[in-house]
Amino acid sequence: MDFTTPPYLLKEASVQRVMLQVLAALLPGIGAYVWVFGPIILVQIAIATAAVLASEAFMLKLRNKPLGLFLGDGSAIVTGWLIALAFPPLAPWWLIVVGAFFAIVIAKHLYGGLGQNPFNPAMIAFAVCIVSFPALMSQWPPVDLKAGFADQLALVFGFAPRIDVMSGATPLDALKTALKLGEGNTTVATVMANAQTFGYFAGKGWEWIMVGYLLGGLWLWQRKIISWHGPAGFIAGIALIATVLWLWQPADFATPLFHLFSGGTMLGAFFIVTDPVSGCTTPKGKLIFGFAAGLLAYLIRVFGGYPDGVAFAVLLLNICVPLIDMYTQPPVFGHKGSK
Amino acid sequence: MNAIIQQLFKFKGGVKPQTNKTISAHEPIAQAPLPARLIVPLHQSIGGTPNPLVVAGDHVLKGQLIGGPDGWLSSAVHAPTSGTVLAVEDHISAHPSGLMTLSVIIQPDGRDEWLPRTPLNYRELAPERVREILRDAGVVGLGGAVFPSHAKLSASKTVPMEELVINGAECEPFITCDDLLMRERAEDVVRGVGIFRDLLAPKRVLIGIEDNKPEAVAAMQQAVKSLGEPFEVIAVPTRYPAGGAKQLIRVLTGKEVPAAKRSTELGVQCFNVATAYTAYRAIAHGEPVISRIVTLTGNVEHPCNWEVLIGTPLGEFIQLGQPKSDTNGYLMGGPMMGFEMPSLDAPLVKATNCIIAGSPTLFPPKAPEMPCIRCGACADACPHELQPFEMYWFARAKNFGKTQEYKIFDCIECGCCSFVCPSHIPLVQYFRFAKSEIWAREADKKASEAAKARFEFRNLRDEREKAEKAERLAKASAAKAAEKKAAAATAEASIEPATGSDGADTSGAIAAPVDADAAKKAAIAAAIERARVQRAAAEPKNTDGLTIAQRKEIAEIEARRAPLQEQTDPNAERAKPGTALKEVKG
Description:
By secondary structure, chain A is mostly helical. Chain A contains 16 helices and no strands.
């Protein structure tokens, strides 16, 4: 009996348990993803998992840390899955590996490993790859792509040429490009009338993946793995600016609903903004972090040059975390009202 | 019963560990048999260590004072039964480190013979006298903190006493001693609360009991009703640490007592139910605190509550519960804040509310510690709304100033943060480490400041003495010069009257300054002597406030010395002027 340190009773909780629940919460979204883009995403998830575990093992070995304990904590796998879900499903295998390697080696272990990284590793992977390989990172297959699993596999592993039909854009990107090309003569309504790209309230197919992430996120909240502050702030941030601009010029700006169910909004809100290590820790801080990230994500995705802005928004806010936390410390028991 | 519906408040945080209480609450309180030996530590409460009043060989009666309170913040200790004092010596105590403390070891004579007891009606006594009686009866907080109760029974002079909170929450898992006490002896508890109420004169008396003890709540309500007291017995939600004084005060009154303040400054005072019980027994029956109810539970065949004499060795006590074969240690207190007893020889004390036999299945070995992932579970669980992970971060970095900015001294070490931590970080240990480091540093700082002050004072004194000496010299030389002048003047004068009465006048003029010098010297010597006497009077002699044992020892040494001194007496006589000289010089 380890009697050196009270309490002697401990709750059954572990980092591994937390991470496994996060992975489980991703499953509804992944299910919708498979339904929309085909099972190729499962291959990408497998590649990412293998890559992060290999990178993690490599770094743990270098740093003389117990392999079993840290490989088993599941944190690297969460990073891997998020990378796979954020990258285009037909991205070449090595792109995922580069992202995974960067996330684990540079963004995580060079900063001290689990619990020490100031930046979200998955978002670092996304940012590095979209800056370094903008074309590959922007090519999303159309949702009604008539290509078999074998063809997709061949594409991912580089046995088939990357033909134009495979290199579509996300609905978010498509809307932005169409509006830009239209030079004021096109309206959001006419662009979104294209039923091939757009669905009921957002991108065709995409909207259901987003609903999947939303459901998973709500489950995490119900399990008290995440608090509501971060996601609520993030969604409020995007919704607020989207609503204002949409009310102001509905012809030029899509509905808030479209923005909430497009790109990386829901994945970001429930799985990225809520990363405890790189995010704020105080309730108020989480709200501010989420809200500011939401605003920035909208600005970057609508006015910037990248297909989406979640990654950059989150990374920029990661820098501000110590400051936000410092100024949002909640009052301590018995010290309220007296500063 | 009271018609007012008590509004309950909430404290943030807290956890809900498995309570494990029912296993030991089935049976009534049993009387533990007389042990073969009793080890009664003298220091059983916060404050000064009581002085031993007995020596080996003395015969003591049950309830006889064996340790007299040392000052106001101290509490008496009594013989738990009649018997012979075997020794007054250092003995291993109920402390995690196995600390040795001065203890009175008694061999019971089996007669269990009481010292004559004098039941009192406290209403006829001055409040001051009641507090004295409580101190001399060894009444201390039995909830675990063992703070001398009499010291908490003076109302603040500036803040009116609004609520008296009586703590029957008993939130730690496994422990049921207060539960059983309230079930079986509710009326005496309520009578004890009545004493506290009369001393403090609060507007309301609130008795808080966790709602997982419905029998205790009912018994207390019944007792309050039958005694016609206006006390409110309130079932509070079961959530650890609802029995923390500050948490219970928060739940019942809505007031938050910060670490730096006493609850009386907010018009609240809090006592444990068992403390109220012992206070009543002490006054109304003249029985000092010589026993208490201890839960014996965990990995034992027969979990139960026992009325045990203070000083019963752990080894003898656990036999009453028949520990199972895989028992590998004994906890004193609950599993959240308790500690492992260092030895089976360690005695049960006033702070011992529970003994839990541990086993690998009951308390499985802890998983390895992982890095903090800043998940904030600890902050959500902290009943004092601290940010444990931030304090952990700074404690680890030994940045103790920062830990204080995060209010580390508001931490009550309840263990909620460690309980929920998914990385299995022993957070409380880090905080204890930080606190003790800060205390040690502050003690160092104080010591160095005192040394600096001493040094500076010495310098100052040297300077002053130098200046005084210079002044004296200057005066002396001035006097000499004046003398010379005077001599010259008289010489001149004597020349004129020429031969007549020479010498007579001159001698008088010379004699005067010499006399002045001697007088000054005498005055200085007198002043030094006065100062020395004053110093001696002001400074306590190290022979003051000695215990009986120490006085005896001194007497023995003096007796040994006497013949030696007679032999060397002439030398001693001769040495005296020398020392006197030194003193004058110094």
